[in-house]
Design brief:
The structure holds two protein chains of two kinds.
Chain A (H helix, E strand, L loop, with lengths): L1 H16 L5 H8 L5 H22 L21 H17 L3 H9 L5 H18 L6
Chain B lengths: L1 H5 L4 H19 L7 H10 L11 H25 L10 H8 L23 H21 L5 H8 L3 H26 L2
Helix pairs in contact in B: 3-4, 7-8
The chains are: A mainly alpha, B mainly alpha.
Chain lengths: 136, 188
Amino acid sequence: MTAYFVVGVLFGVVLTKGELVSWYRIEEALRFKGLYLYLVFASALAVAAPGFALLKRLPARSLAGEPIAIPPKVMGRGVRYVAGGALFGLGWGIVGACPGPLFALIGAGVGVMAVVCIAALVGTWTYGYLRPRLPH
Amino acid sequence: MTELLHRAWPWYLTGPLVGLVAVGLLAIGNKQFGVSQNLRHLCAALVPGNIPYFKYDWRRSGLWNLVFILGVVAGGFVGGVLLANPHPVAITAAAVTSLATLGIRDFSGLVPRELFNWHVLLTLRGFLMMVGGGFLIGFGTAYAGGCTSGHGITGLADLQLPSLIAVISFFAAGAAASFFLLPVLVSR
């Protein structure tokens, strides 16, 4: 468990020092006024994609001894990805932060983001409640 | 030296490190990088009600992720307080001009203080932006089964089509919100 905490600290530092928690950076990208966020995504994928491929192909196991596998997302009718993605995107565009940065911002001293986190918990709970009636 | 530590990082340091975090979690314990799962785990731990979606062993499947996110909060303190960048964010001139049309003049800190503070929370604008926006983030990520990390990094890096659909959808809706909803909300 210590390892996950350490990687979390690293990610929190990357989010803040890399300005991925910055409302201005997110709005810059969503208004197509700068490449910063897109370059971050592209270079993150340039590391993660070959990294995943390598770990999956090697007969390697994780340090914890489990075989490495990434479960595929179920496509279904795909409604959840379009509709859920759109609803999340609307919130992301307004708040200027996605879930990771929300947590990092609390640590960075923007305490009012705790309210946004609680609202997000209520949103997730509401999804759980409505789930049987939603198209997926 | 301190100037170097406090300065904002360039994309070519930030991006690869984000990728490394995702690869690291997989290598350490076959864990999929995805932050919004924690919202589900927290609901399952705190108020599962009688809802099947929250009836699972969150300790077994999610404790590592909650520990990870606790680290993110601590890392936010290190990067955002101890090593805070004293300079305004270096967004492009075009972005500054664009955000100035919303009345944003102060580009210091991580978020515009005039939009995100405890006083504004009690106004209609603040309530809609923070509580409404947060609700959409929580509902949407649960519905889509992932966010910018789970779909945007893990799913895309694993070449999964559902994640590509989700990413296109949340970028399009994010742009729409920034262009059309923000001006209405900020003028309140």
